[in-house]
Every structure is written in C-alpha cells, then in structure tokens.
Amino acid sequence: MDITQNSVSGESRGRPRSNEVHRSILDATLSLLAEHGVEKLSIEMIAQRAGVGKSSIYRRWNNKEALIVEALEQIKPEFKASAEGDLNEVLYELARNFAQQMNTPLGKQMLSLLISTISGSSQISESFWKNHSLPKTKEISSIIAQHRSTEKLSDKVNVDLVSDLLIGFVMYQLLFKPPSTDLDASLKQGIELVVNGMREPN
Fold first, then answer.
1. Which residues lie within the region annotated Disordered (predicted)?
2. Which residue blocks in the chain are alpha helix, DSSP H?
3. Residue 84: which H helix or E strand, with range?
4. Closest to 119 in 3D by CA, of 29, 3, 39, 1
5. Is the per-residue pLDDT at 142 higher than 80?
6. Which of 186, 202, 131, 16 is nearest to 194 (CA)?
7. Cys-Cys crosslink for 159: which of 5, 48, 86, 141, Cβ 3.0 to 4.6 Å?
8. Which of these, 134, 27, 19, 139, lies nearest to 90 by C-alpha position?
C-alpha cells in the first residue's frame, strides 16, 4: 500500500457497511495512537472515535494488540523487490522506492508512529516482526544471496545482518537527516559501500 494514498481520518459518519466499519476502526486506531500512544489507548476510545460499538471491534480482533498490529500494516509502504540486474542497482531501486513513499510529511509522521508504537509494546513488536518485518527482511536477504556468485560476495557474509543494516541505513536517512540532504546520492553511496564491503578481497 502506498503511504501517500493513506490518511488518518477522524470520526466516521453514520452506520457504514461492514468493510467501511473495518476501515473506520483501523483509521481511528491510527489517529488515537498518534494522539495517546499504546498504553493509554483503549477499545472504548477506538469504538467512540470510529462511531461503532465495542462488539464490532471484538468480532474482528481478539484484543487491542491484534487490532494495533493490523492498523500499523496500513501505513507500511509498498514493497517491490526484484533480483534481476546488478546488485547495486537492485538494492538502490528497492531503497529508492521505499524512500519515495515515506519521504513526505505524512510518510515521516506515519513512520515515526510505527516506530514509537512498536517500541512501546513487546507483544506488538514481536507480532509485527514475525508477521510483517521478518518476511520482508528475508526477501532482501534472498536477493543478496542470489547475487553471491555473480557479485563475488564473500561466503562469510551474513545476508540477514546486511539486510538489517540496509533497512536501518534508509530509515536513518529519512528520519534524522535534514530535508536539504541529497537523499538519492546518500542512498547510492551507502549501498555501494555495503556491496563493496561484502565482496571477496582481491
């Protein structure tokens, strides 16, 4: 899902149909997370903001944590991964695609919300990692592994650790560097440095 197409809505109007109820609950959860954080958020607050009864929420989710995990899934950027081509270019295109979706005022706000929510609850963090983050990380690891022979990467390279480093690098560029930073150049230089570091020494 493209983050630039998402928004956090306020209170819903009327009694929407089932799919609209589902959407209004997720939107209400995100907006309340931004306002109050994980600890202060309650099912009662979500129901009131969404304009639904608590029973409508419990029919869809067993608890608050399960609802939050699905709500956070709505603000994740679309993930496009391909193993075809030069490894530098493949990883750059992947990073650039992610950065373009998140490098907006709304995107950065949602990214900050995602991080603060996950860091505020070990249960949510564990669930989100297992069901969402880990599969995406494994996709990047698989791409790197497929280039091991063609790019002459060292057999000692831990591709999962490299994937973590790349994700952390892109997130740092988005969240902590000033807007004046040449993001495109930083991504290219950072990825080139990582790829060169994985290669067998001459």
1. 1-20
2. 18-40, 43-50, 54-58, 64-73, 87-102, 105-119, 122-128, 134-146, 159-176, 183-198
3. none
4. 39
5. yes
6. 186
7. 141
8. 139
This model's pTM is above 0.90: no
Provide the β-strand partners of residue 44.
none
Task: Measure the CA–CA gap between 38 and 62, rounded to whole angstroms.
Answer: 16
The tokens for 31 are 């907006």
CA nearest to 150, candidates 86, 82, 81 = 86
The average pLDDT across 66-85 equals 78
Domains of the chain: 3-72 (1.10.10.60), 87-198 (1.10.357.10)
pLDDT per residue over 114-141, tens digit each?
888 888 888 888 888 887 788 889 999 9
What is the total residue count of the chain? 202
